[in-house]
Amino acid sequence: MLAMTAASLSADDSGANALDPAQTSAYELMQAQLYEHRRALKAIQSIERKVEAKRDYLPLYWPWVDGVLAGGQGARLCCIN
């Protein structure tokens, strides 16, 4: 999924900020995926459909969360103090 997200961002971009999956860290790919999911959620007006989308998205993040918790080194997010 992360590679698909990076590929879609590369295709959408004019090349100035395109992500190259071969040269992009797992953290950057996760951030790109999160950005795409947040963008998709903003486009959904129905709360019920947003809940369904979140149910689909959430399992994609569990391996990342488990890895960060197991490693004890999480990155600080700008939106979480």
Automatic annotation (TrEMBL):
<dbReference type="Pfam" id="PF05944">
    <property type="entry name" value="Phage_term_smal"/>
</dbReference>
<dbReference type="GO" id="GO:0003677">
    <property type="term" value="F:DNA binding"/>
</dbReference>
<dbReference type="InterPro" id="IPR010270">
    <property type="entry name" value="Phage_P2_GpM"/>
</dbReference>
<dbReference type="GO" id="GO:0004519">
    <property type="term" value="F:endonuclease activity"/>
</dbReference>
<protein>
    <submittedName>
        <fullName>Uncharacterized protein</fullName>
    </submittedName>
</protein>
